[in-house]
Design a protein that fits this description.
Blueprint: H1 3-20, E1 24-34, E2 37-41, E3 45-48, E4 68-71, E5 75-76, E6 97-101, E7 104-112, E8 120-128, E9 133-137
Antiparallel strand pairs: 1-2, 1-8, 3-4, 4-7, 5-6, 6-9, 7-8
Length: about 140
């Protein structure tokens, strides 16, 4: 898998969002689950209920209470993979600009659990306006 293969969908998504000025659904990774338990949740992602209160989620079933996320730092955006297995990368990937959500509060439209070798990721689908996206180097 080349760096071009990885960056092409992300850059295309960002270009479409910037040029159209419309909202589109995309995903962020909020953490990882092992045996349906957080292991760990990213510190830069706060989970919120429908009243905007912070949630302390301990297991997979409690994720149904999440209605929004608050990002304290930029979070990489990705195409939503649902429950598909995450492909393993080959070799060292070059660093380049990728789209990320700016810090702020975002409504959650859904979530998925892309499979890892050991456990699974927790992926939240967010609706993000073009002006809430920045390009960062990873």
């Amino acid at each position: 898998m080349s760096a071009y293969t990885i960056f092409k969908p992300s850059l295309l998504l960002a270009a479409c969002l910037f040029s159209s000025g419309v909202q589109a659904s995309t995903c962020i990774t909020a953490g990882r689950m092992d045996n349906a338990v957080w292991a760990p949740q990213f510190q830069s992602v706060r989970l919120l209920d429908d009243a905007g209160r912070s949630l302390k989620v301990k297991n997979k079933s409690e994720l149904t209470q999440v209605r929004a996320v608050e990002l304290t730092e930029a979070a990489l955006l990705s195409v939503c993979d649902g429950n598909k297995a995450v492909a393993r990368g080959e070799g060292v990937q070059s660093k380049g600009p990728v789209p990320a959500a700016k810090p702020g509060r975002f409504n959650v439209a859904g979530f998925g659990f892309p499979k890892l070798q050991n456990g699974e990721l927790v992926e939240f689908e967010l609706t993000i306006a073009a002006d809430q996206i920045v390009m960062i180097t990873r």
